[in-house]
Amino acid sequence: MALDTRPWLADPDALFALLVEAHRGLSAEESRKLDAKLVLILANHVGDTEVVREAVALAKASGPHPATPP
User: Fold this and answer.
1) How far is CA 47 from the centre of its chain?
2) What is the pLDDT of residue 62?
3) 49 Rama class: left (phi>0) / alpha (psi -120 to 50) / beta
4) Residues 3-24, buried b or exposed e (16+ Cβ, 10 A)?
5) What is the C-alpha separation between 35 and 20, in angstroms, rounded?
6) Taking 70 as the threshold, does the pLDDT of residue 59 lie above it?
7) Helix H segments across 7-70?
8) At 14, is the secondary structure helix, strand, or coil?
9) pLDDT at 1
10) Furthest-apart CA pair in the chain: how many Å?
11) 3 and 58 Cβ atoms separated by less than 8 Å
């Protein structure tokens, strides 16, 4: 299976708001732990190491997060 990057979200703004709300009130360390847990849960749902490998490569190739100083 290859990584499918076509847009599938019916409401991407709602998903973004859900993720922002999940981090509200958390410390930086707690946010990193939440992100790590979420990645592992979703990777397990995908169930294909090669697809996850492609996703990691794509995420790393997209450069630093906009909030990260250069």
Assistant:
1) 16
2) 80
3) alpha
4) eeeeeeeeeeeeeeeeeeeeee
5) 11
6) yes
7) 12-23, 28-46, 49-61
8) helix
9) 83
10) 38
11) yes
